[in-house]
Prior knowledge:
elongated, 3 helices, 26% helix, 12% strand
Amino acid sequence: MISRASRVDDEKSTNFYKMVKYVKKNIDNTSDSVVYDFTVRKGFMPDLIEIPEEFEDVPIADVKPKDFARRSSNKKFIRTRTNKDMTNYDAWRCHDRQAVVVDHKSPNVAKFWIAPADLKKLFGVPDPPSLGIMGTGEYNFEDSNLDCFRLFDFK
Length: 155
C-alpha cells in the first residue's frame, strides 16, 4: 500500500513539474490554455516555483491541456439550482455549526409542510430555536460541500 501511494505521489509530482517547466517556457503565450489555467485560474506564479534536482531532467514536450484537466473524484454529486434530482445527495444533522439568520423575516429558500412527529422520528429532538419565541425548534444540517442549512419550525 505504501509503495502504491509513493508511486502515485511521484507521478503527481512529475506531472506538476512538467507543467511548471512548460509554463515557464511558454509564459508569454497567453492563448495557451495550460498557461492560462496554471497562472490565472489556479493562481500559481511559475517564477517563484523552484524545481528540485530530481525533477530537473523531466521532459516538457508531452504536456497537453487534457493531462491537467480536472480528474473525476469519488465525491458524490451535489445538486445545483438547475438540477432538482436528490438521488445521492448526502446531508447529516450538525450540532456544532449553524446557518446565520438575522431574524424571522430573513428570506427562505423553500417552505414545505411536514408533520413534526415525522421530523422527530427521523432526526430526534430538535435544538432550541435560535430566534427565541418565534419557533418551537430547529434542525441544523450540513452536506458534503460543508454547506449549512436550517430546518426551522416558525411559530
